[in-house]
Amino acid sequence: MASLLRPLYWTIWASPRRRAQKLLQFAEVEAEGGRDLVRASELTVDPVLRRLFLAHARDEERHARMFRSRGLALGVGMPPRAGNTMFDWISPGERGLDDLRIKDEHLGSLLAFIHLSESAAARDFAEYSSVLGHDPLTRSLFDHIGRDEEHHMRYSLAQLRRVASGGSRALLWKARLRRLWKAYLRLASAIAGIMSTVLLTIQYFVLLPPFALLAKFAMRREQPGWTVLPPALDSKSGREF
Amino acid sequence: MKILGISAHYHDAAAALVIDGLPVAAVQEERFSRAKNDAAFPMAAIEWCLDQAGLEPEQLDAVVFYEQPALKFDRILTSSLRSFPHSWRSFPKAMKNMLGEKLWIRGIIASQLGVPGRKVLFSGHHMSHAAASFLTAPCGEAAILTADGVGEWATMTIGAGQKGKDHATSIKLIRELRFPHSLGLFYSAFTAFLGFAVNEGEYKVMGLAAYGVPNRVDDVYQVIQRTADGALELDLRYFDFHSRAETSFSKRFTDLFGPPRNPNEPIDLASQDGRRFVDIAASAQRVLEDILVDIAQALHRETGFPDLCLGGGVALNGVANARLLAESGFERVSVPPAPGDAGCALGAALFADRIHFGQPHRDVPDHPFWGPGIEPADLLRLAREDDIPVEEVDEDALLSDIADALWQGAIVGWMDGALEFGPRALGHRSLLAAPHDAALRDRLNRDIKYREEFRPFAPVVTLEHAHRFFELAPGAERLGRFMSGVFPVRREWRERLAAVTHVDGTARVQVLDPPMAPRLARLLDLYGQRSGIPVLLNTSFNLAGEPIVNTVAEGYSTFRRSGIDLMVAGSICVRKGGQRHEALSEAAE
Ligand SMILES: [Fe+2]
Ligand SMILES: [Fe+2]
Ligand SMILES: [Fe+2]
Questions:
Q1: CB-based contacts of A119: which residues, under 8 Å, 6+ apart?
Q2: Shortest CA distance from B225: residue in chain A
Q3: How far apart are alpha carbons B89 and B94 in whole angstroms?
Q4: pLDDT 10s digits, A62-117
Q5: Within an 8 Å CB–CB cutoff, is residue B460 touching chain A?
Q6: What pLDDT is recorded for position A87?
Q7: Between residues 214 and 233 of chain B, which touch chain A (CB distance below 8 Å)?
Q8: pLDDT at position B586
């Protein structure tokens, strides 16, 4: 799969503008992942994990800073372009804890999740590095951060084994399935989103024109400035409209 | 009566509980979910409020939502129709957004809380703002002015309120201004143009304005005009409210003011572009103030009341508030600690109690501390587990230790009692530091708040000493109570208050009435004994991009992750010794 995507990755990372923008996006995702880990450290009662999560969070905050400053350096003079493109989900960065509700997670499944998302990040970053031969600075950034992600991968696995002892394999499988499920949900809701947008846009052009005409007519009669309110307004209280 | 107020789905969701006419709990959802300005339905906040009073949802007499969703839907639909066919891109998004959840509030509240639908009531958005301000202010009758981006249709209202001792309490909204003509949206467009996040970065525009010269006022009056009846009107050719918030200004706007600022690039005052941005900020700020003052003057003439109650997000503009106090003719101006949409949760609940149900007026305690308290013992445990020096000493020794540390340049994370309701830390979740040292301010900006240096930090001083250091107009104590006004620092003190004095010689001072936060007041005295200046720098206890800390564990993790030297929770105090940050490999040991 990864090798199939290689040419695509190459295209994505070829343009400096897109590279700058991707790095800035990654910075945001890393920062968010850092905040998730801070939250995990605040909620856990296990002192070892608390320290680990905090140190991990600091790594992610550092990654965010590194991505950001490289992204800004690459993007100097280019006005930022807003909005997402299709490329964004073809080349994801680290995905934090994948909109996990940390508060409700068991320690074991939380660690399994961390382990898996760190592995995915390490893998992705290695791929990106491999197509960045033309930009050694960005490449070494990915290499450096990738090494950290491998650390994160290892400590989370070690802690998972400690916390869950015999059950760690089952937890990992469960987390894998949940990640798949979440990926499916993301895809499904994206498709549903596109479909409803299409339907609503059709309705907009088919159903709305006469009402739009009326609304524009009504608008023309409207006086600018204050609207005086009826004196008994507050007796209308409590109603939905 | 037991009434729950809810605000949600736009910005900064919150819940508030009123029992027998008095607030017992109020808190923003972000403080629990830890997602800044969380707008989601505030389930955690609601649960905490009910818990606090030991109530089950079925014991509530009413649940009041802070605005009328159907009316809001009407506005969104109508404005889509009016700008047909240009609104084709925004229409699907707006519909999905409204139809998804926001329109069916009664059902959502009924099902989430398990209360019958008939107990769910609605207040108007600006009525909630008005109630949040007037019903909590210490005055019997007052003129009311609310202004924000937009509620349902209204963007600004003026009115009058009377509290009933022997008659019913009333709030009469006399006139309103309707979308799209809005002072809040006007200011937000400039916020976006200057490269800051809308609904969040408005105060940065205010901070930036102090660096500039308002030499573009005439241009600003091209995009916003006064109407003959004293209201205002936006020239819609300059705005585009149908695309994303980041581009609420149109091409015509950028033809007039030049290209917008790239949010990723810092503002360089030495450059021509940098000067352009600060001058535009100063001009927009000036126009906002002038219009507000003019409208308030007319309101004063009309009502004759000595008190003005302000509500809505625009009331967070401390510079404008101070000008309103000085120039509008009102003797006192009140702004509640949470004038924005979060505060509407409390406003809606009080509105239902006093006006919908006609309950007798009761004076609302004049403080912002309606949130969860703290467990200092948690700090003891956390610090011991992490081998961090921790002390539990008696109150006098503790406060003098902290005063010593502050005097020696420490940055102190201070947690005491119940959490503030609203965006400002007013002495229960604060970072405190010495106010004289500009280098300390820079350290705070760099190592803790990670923020732009053009945003000043605020000072706190007790009522007794406030006039010595600040030029407080009559009535300023009221605005200063919840840090709602910006006033000049006396010239002779500016250098010795360098860390809290803005470039134009002003400060957003908190004038502390000691009974409101007695421990902070004592600390100020003790610090004054050492330094000769009983003033401290007071900023909210949180890192950039995070909500203000709520629990001790959150304060502690903030302390561990940043350059805070010392943290206090109640009677427990931890210090950073020589520890450096642990790397992952060491943390496991
Ligand atoms: Fe990372
Ligand atoms: Fe990582
Ligand atoms: Fe509002």
A1: A149, A153
A2: A225
A3: 9
A4: 999 999 999 988 877 666 554 444 444 445 555 555 555 666 678 889 999 999 99
A5: no
A6: 45
A7: 227-233
A8: 66
Task: Work out the minimum CA distance from B473 to partner chain A, whole angstroms.
Answer: 31
Report CB contact under 8 Å: A208, B81.
yes
Find the mean pLDDT for residues B50-79. Answer: 94
Closest residue to A42, CB basis, from B82, B264, B553: B553
Digit-coded pLDDT (tens) for B252-262: 999 999 999 98
Give pLDDT, residue A216.
Answer: 87
- Give residue limits of the domains in chain B: 2-66+68-122+341-356, 183-332, 376-588
Cα separation, B512 vs A165, whole angstroms: 55
Q: How far apart are CA B518 and CA B346, in angstroms?
A: 25
May I ask the CATH architecture of the domain B2-66+68-122+341-356? Answer: 2-Layer Sandwich (3.30)
Beta strand B62-65 with B2-7 is: parallel
- The CATH number covering residue A38 comes to 1.20.1260.10
Neighbouring C-beta atoms of residue B372, cutoff 10 Å? 18
Task: Enumerate residues 108 to 167 of chain B having a beta carbon within 8 A of any beta carbon in chain A.
Answer: 121-124, 127, 157
CATH topology for B376-588 is DHBP synthase (3.90.870)
The pTM score is: 0.93
Amino acid found at B247: T
Superfamily of domain B183-332: ATPase, nucleotide binding domain (3.30.420.40)
**Cβ-Cβ contacts under 8 Å, A151 against chain B:** 584-585
SS (HEC) of B7-22 = ECCCCCCEEEEEECCE
**Token pair belonging to A236:** 């209308």
Q: Which of residues 106-145 of A touch B (CB under 8 A)?
A: none
